[in-house]
User: Fold this.
Amino acid sequence: MPWQKLSKLPRKDLENIQNQKLREFFKLNFNFHPYYKKLFAENDIDPNSIKTTEDLKKIPFTTKLDLLPTKENPKKFMDFVLQPDEELIKKYFPKYRLLYWALESRKNFKDFLEHEYKPMHMHFTTGRSSMSIPFLYTQRDIETLQDVGLRLMDIFNVKKESIAVNAFPYSPHLAFWLGYNALFAAKIPALHTGGGKIMGTEKIINAIERMKANLVMAIPGYFYHLLRESVEQKKDFSSLTHVIFGGEGVSLGMKNKLKDLLLEINSGNAKLLSTYAFTEGKAAWGECMLENGESTGYHLYPDLEFIELIDPKTGERVNEGEQGEIVYTSLGWNGSVVLRYRTGDICKGIYYEPCPVCGKTVPRLDTKIHRVSEFKEINLTKIKGNLVNLNEFSEILHSFKEIGEWQVELKKKNNDPFEIDEVVVYVALSKKSEKKTDKNELKQHLLKKIIAEMEFTPEIVFKELKELEHMLGLHTELKEKRIVDRRENK
Ligand SMILES: [Zn+2]
Assistant:
């Protein structure tokens, strides 16, 4: 069904589509899935008993650990890829579809199966600490990815006449490849720069100005760096109307900082738009924004996935509108497929009423999402550990206009593993504030705010901007090293 129609259907109809897709999956593709076939047999679950999204509760969760290679099975990721063979096709492929296909298509059946099931593209999970896992796309999946791109352009209201610069780092990750496929599908003329490491920031900045780009796609941390350089070089970005972020979320503090910089290069009206994605979900979801910049949430694709929120402790589904961990079930993809995948991301809520901005009826995820792994136990005294939400640093540090860059380091006192933990906040002043800022005064303000909001006292260390940019790996990493944990027992 076309997105324009689907995205405005009543909730009941959307739920019916999801249930229907689920039943189709268990009739056909389930039989081609090595991992779930085994899991269902081991847990004595009848695949035909999964008729609605409510029945998904019977299926044990899948986690990143299930996807990781083991000694006995170094290609574990292949267990999650649909793999039909001739025998399975004969057994499970519905006769009516075979007949329909034979009447409608002149291509041979083998071509059709290749289009549906043969993996032809892969990219990897980004995992900062754990191993990267490949996720496979078939030709049909790439077409779905392009459709997802068109949906994002629709949600973000990007005009077809736009000119784009894709500044996502060129690497086998979702951000770059979705960016590429979205612009290709939308027939938007684009320069795919490969990011700072491939084309260089200087050339990217010049390209945005000279091409009069309306749309830029980038990782937030890198875009911030790019803007600072552009302001310094007094560039003109007046043609810019949309900036689409990927790779990580953008806090409101960060958005305000970016807005201030954009104002200086004549693009104060550019819309700053976030996406949410994880490799296992194979797509990205985009937000809608109210006039005041507040987000109405990430718009989901109910025909491609089912998303539920669970209590991370009990594994029970939370009540509607309540906070919980995002759990993802694929409904519309071939290649790599996961069911009830625990993302480790905590979301403030999922909403089902029509979006107040665009009127779409698809479910929306609150943009307040943080990784469970960003909550860390820190032992600041010998008595007990504190559970600290490291995301709070982002809001606090970005709210100081004088601060150009920052990094937080967790370490053991005197590098002694038996000692207490220490938190060091490295801070560099922005070029504009370098001369006129009293560092001592700033330090006192900063400490006061951190103590008030996070209830502990870190050490504050000033660094030169260039040095801190290097520490963050701004030019070389897909995600900057904003928080570094150097303790041995994490
Ligand atoms: Zn909307």
